[in-house]
Write a sequence for this structure.
């Protein structure tokens, strides 16, 4: 009997061992897949159990978190939601996150390991740091000016500080209030369905995710390539250009919207936007030089992140001369995001050096201690200093003498280029009015802002001047806001410092940067 | 180890070898068994509201007083009893109260901890009663047939009451609901032990031999199989499969230990497999349980959200190695029966694999002490009874813990001492009282030959 009792005891022991083995299987080996199961609400509960960190513009948060007392406790709220939606994106309990809310989610949600007292600490204690802050480079005044300038029209604005790549404004209209998507109730679902079904695509960030034919603004690139390549010696010498211009190898004729383009000088052609001169100039410069200049300025680059991923702008690298001629005036397959064209203007303003554009100045803990800072990064030297200087002259001329007069700002040097692009089958789509420019306050050492504006403008006729008509005033308002010119322009060397948007510094930020 | 004291002992009538009584050890362990749940109670309050719950002192004093009374009863009426049994029971009961209190905070409208505290008091009262009144466990042998009659009445009673949650195992009287099947377990164990002790030779050595199987005569085996079949039949009718599985396992184990015939185990397992297959394919209630076990995430794939078993698995996995900490998990997502059948999921999530293993090892220790008491005894009834009672605990833990962790199909059953449910709690206190009584006999009669 004793041996039978021992055997029975062994059976009971085996049963308990089986329990332990199975518990280990579930709690250790399968825990990952169970924890990540979308039906498991624990991750969502943990994620929304604390206030989400804020996104700051000009030192003030444009977001906040509201304690709803529900199972998923904290919901996102937005100040001036539509104004900053192309920057913040949304943070929805039901539909995930987008834009900065998405790319900076680890900081905002407090899961970034660098937020903890010691990296890896939170994994050990199963704790979550308070949500960190994301300090953007956005200049509130410039953003506001761009948003108000676009008004009810469909379009986008991107503004950059040329010397640093800091993005001062990033606006897309029509916009939406991301706060409508924050929660998880029926109204959120309704808003989501409605926003996605809207033919105006309010969720689309046109400034970085939509490419447009750049039209005549691309002539800046063409001129840069031609100057760099030596295809143009003296910009004031008449060129041997017919009007209309027959596209090489084809019967198609390219004409102009303005007079005086036949044999016009490059300066005149730039100021008054002669298609014929630049189409011919592009062909003379050659495909390789044209494509090289476009790519150095950022075209055909699909991996740019600011840290939002930016859609690639396109300049074909294989085409015949007729296509090259059209491409040289920003038509055919040439397409650019507004941010890309702002980078072109910034490169000219910054002596040919292309700085990596960025939207996030730094991230901090909720106490204000810096977690990461973004430094100035040069992507490449797109053109020589002298080419950039000559282009600045051409662009200044276009504002002072030519099509861009609407962008002139007293007390500052402004260079710009207008553009209009037709699109759609038989060019029946609403034309796009473009304006790209840069501005340098008098007495400042360097231009403080470069901007690109695109407006879908029903009123834009085929006249190139329409870019100057509807887009240039918006660019002017943005540049004025970014330059922060005093009411009465004075020649004061210290104005340069005030012209630059001061880096946003939240209150209580007294700690030195801990990490780079 | 007690050699020196034995040599210098006065020449009285005491046996040559006396085992130490170990009551001091028991008291020290009881102190620990009271302090741990009080600490857990405070930890829940600190995690949920940032302050020590107001009732912490009263709760600790109450639990301590109960433990002390039980200890005194053991000290005076069963001085040689195994010193581990009572502290384990108090600790498990205390942990159960903490877990239920913790879950109560998520369901303010439905508070179970106060009721459970009343039942705990009642359970300890019955424990003391059994230890004090029952001077010798062999007395029970006389009441074998009374026990089985009582067990059958208890098992049949709920048939006349309305079903609760698909199972007819409750009797509702006023505000209290009783599960008579829980008490029947002890009575059946007493009957099986007594009957098998009396007839084990006849079962083992008489009857005809078919192939390699020695079948006993029908006269001997008939009553026991009939009663077993009857009890299992009643349980199937009541749709309480956990308990019928438990009875079946108990029956097979005791039969094997009594007769030493491996053939019984084979026949038993064959019968179990046939029964399980038949019930599993014919009974829709059971069939759905098996489907849930095989495909715990089927309801998620079907877009209906996670089922109870899936939620239970999520809770265990969320605990990981060290657990979230008391009060910081979300096992309440399991919903219905989170405080009773699924209480182990809360332990798994908030105490982690570490805490869960500790709890399972506590059960293992309890079962081991039961078996050890049986081994130390010389007479078969006591051996079989302690074996049976220990096996009840082991099987019950396996059936319910295996069910909520997806090892076997889920059957509604209470985790001994932990789960919300008065009948189960009281029954387990009686089981521990009987084990205390048996171990006292075993260790006081120790003659220095068998392992204590």
């Amino acid at each position: 009997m004793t041996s039978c009792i021992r055997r029975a005891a062994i059976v009971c022991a085996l049963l308990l061992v089986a329990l332990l083995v199975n518990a280990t299987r579930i709690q250790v080996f399968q825990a990952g897949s169970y924890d990540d199961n979308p039906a498991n609400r624990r991750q969502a509960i943990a994620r929304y159990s604390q206030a989400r960190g804020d996104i700051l513009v000009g030192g003030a948060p444009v977001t906040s978190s509201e304690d709803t007392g529900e199972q998923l406790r904290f919901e996102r709220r937005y100040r001036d939601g539509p104004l900053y939606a192309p920057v913040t994106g949304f943070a929805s309990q039901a539909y995930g996150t987008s834009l900065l809310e998405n790319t900076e989610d680890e900081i905002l949600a407090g899961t970034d390991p660098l937020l903890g007292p010691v990296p890896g600490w939170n994994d050990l204690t199963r704790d979550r740091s308070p949500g960190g802050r994301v300090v953007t480079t956005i200049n509130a005044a410039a953003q506001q000016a761009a948003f108000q300038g676009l008004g009810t029209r469909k379009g986008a604005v991107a503004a950059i500080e040329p010397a640093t790549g800091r993005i001062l404004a990033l606006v897309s209209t029509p916009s939406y209030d991301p706060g409508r998507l924050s929660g998880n109730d029926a109204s959120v679902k309704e808003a989501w369905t409605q926003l996605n079904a809207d033919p105006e695509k309010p969720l689309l960030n046109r400034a970085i995710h939509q490419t447009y034919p750049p039209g005549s603004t691309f002539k800046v690139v063409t001129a840069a390539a031609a100057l760099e390549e030596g295809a143009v010696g003296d910009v004031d010498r008449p060129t041997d250009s017919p009007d209309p211009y027959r596209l090489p190898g084809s019967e198609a004729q390219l004409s102009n919207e303005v007079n005086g383009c036949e044999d016009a000088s490059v300066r005149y052609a730039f100021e008054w936007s002669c298609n014929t001169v630049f189409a011919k100039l592009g062909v003379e410069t050659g495909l390789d030089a044209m494509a090289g200049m476009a790519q150095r300025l950022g075209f055909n680059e699909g991996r740019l992140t600011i840290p939002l991923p930016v859609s690639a702008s396109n300049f074909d690298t294989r085409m015949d001369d007729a296509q090259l001629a059209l491409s040289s005036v920003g038509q055919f397959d040439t397409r650019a995001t507004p941010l890309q064209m702002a980078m072109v203007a910034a490169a000219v303003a910054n002596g040919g050096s292309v700085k990596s554009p960025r939207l996030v100045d730094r991230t901090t803990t909720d106490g204000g201690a810096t977690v990461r800072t973004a430094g100035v990064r040069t992507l490449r030297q797109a053109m020589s200093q002298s080419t950039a200087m000559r282009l600045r002259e051409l662009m200044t001329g276009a504002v002072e003498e030519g099509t861009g007069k609407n962008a002139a700002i007293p007390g500052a040097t402004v260079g710009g280029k207008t553009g209009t692009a037709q699109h759609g089958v038989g060019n029946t789509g609403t034309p796009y009015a473009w304006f790209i420019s840069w501005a340098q306050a008098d007495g400042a050492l360097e231009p403080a802002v470069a901007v690109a504006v695109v407006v879908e403008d029903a009123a834009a006729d085929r006249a190139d001047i329409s870019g100057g008509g509807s887009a240039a005033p918006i660019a002017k308002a943005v540049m004025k806001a970014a330059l922060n010119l005093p009411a009465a322009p004075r020649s004061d060397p210290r104005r340069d410092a005030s012209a630059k948007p001061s880096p946003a510094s939240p209150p209580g930020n007294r700690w030195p940067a801990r990490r780079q | 180890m007690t050699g020196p004291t034995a040599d210098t002992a006065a020449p009285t009538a005491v046996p040559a070898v006396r085992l130490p009584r170990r009551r001091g050890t028991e008291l020290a362990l009881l102190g620990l068994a009271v302090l741990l749940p009080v600490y857990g109670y405070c930890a829940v309050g600190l995690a949920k509201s940032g302050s020590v719950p107001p009732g912490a002192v009263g709760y600790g004093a109450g639990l301590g007083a109960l433990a002390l009374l039980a200890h005194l009863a053991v000290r005076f009426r069963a001085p040689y009893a195994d010193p581990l049994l009572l502290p384990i029971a108090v600790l498990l009961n205390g942990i159960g109260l903490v877990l239920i209190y913790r879950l109560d905070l998520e369901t303010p409208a439905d508070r179970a901890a106060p009721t459970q505290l009343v039942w705990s008091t009642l359970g300890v009262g019955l424990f003391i009663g059994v230890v004090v009144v029952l001077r010798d466990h062999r007395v029970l042998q006389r009441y074998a047939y009374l026990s089985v009659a009582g067990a059958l009445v208890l098992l049949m009673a709920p048939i006349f009451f309305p079903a609760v949650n698909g199972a007819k195992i409750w009797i509702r009287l006023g505000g209290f609901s009783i599960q008579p099947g829980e008490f029947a377990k002890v009575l059946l164990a007493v009957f099986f032990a007594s009957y098998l002790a009396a007839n084990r030779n006849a079962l083992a050595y008489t009857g005809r031999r078919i192939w390699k199987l020695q079948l006993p005569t029908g006269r001997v085996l008939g009553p026991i199989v009939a009663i077993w079949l009857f009890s299992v039949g009643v349980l199937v009718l009541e749709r309480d499969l956990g308990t019928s599985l438990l009875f079946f396992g108990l029956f097979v184990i005791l039969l094997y230990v009594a007769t030493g015939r491996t053939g019984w185990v084979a026949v038993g397992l064959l019968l179990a497999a046939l029964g399980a297959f038949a019930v599993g394919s014919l009974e829709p209630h059971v069939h759905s349980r098996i489907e849930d076990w095989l495909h715990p995430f089927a309801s998620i794939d079907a877009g209906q959200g996670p089922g109870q078993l899936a939620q239970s698995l999520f809770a265990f996995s969320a605990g990981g190695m060290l657990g979230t900490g008391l009060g910081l998990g979300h096992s309440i997502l399991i919903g219905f029966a989170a405080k009773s059948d699924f209480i182990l999921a809360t332990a798994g999530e908030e105490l982690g694999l570490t805490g869960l293993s500790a709890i399972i090892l506590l059960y293992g220790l309890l079962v081991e002490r039961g078996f050890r008491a049986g081994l130390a005894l010389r007479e078969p009834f006591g051996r079989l009874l302690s074996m049976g009672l220990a096996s009840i605990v082991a099987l019950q833990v396996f059936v319910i813990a295996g069910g909520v962790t997806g090892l076997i199909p889920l059957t509604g059953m209470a985790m001994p001492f932990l789960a919300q449910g008065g009948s189960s709690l009281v029954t387990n206190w009686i089981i521990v009282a009987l084990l205390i009584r048996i171990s006292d006999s075993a260790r006081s009669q120790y003659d220095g030959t068998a392992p204590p």
Summary: Residues 487-516 of chain A have pLDDT under 50 and may be disordered.
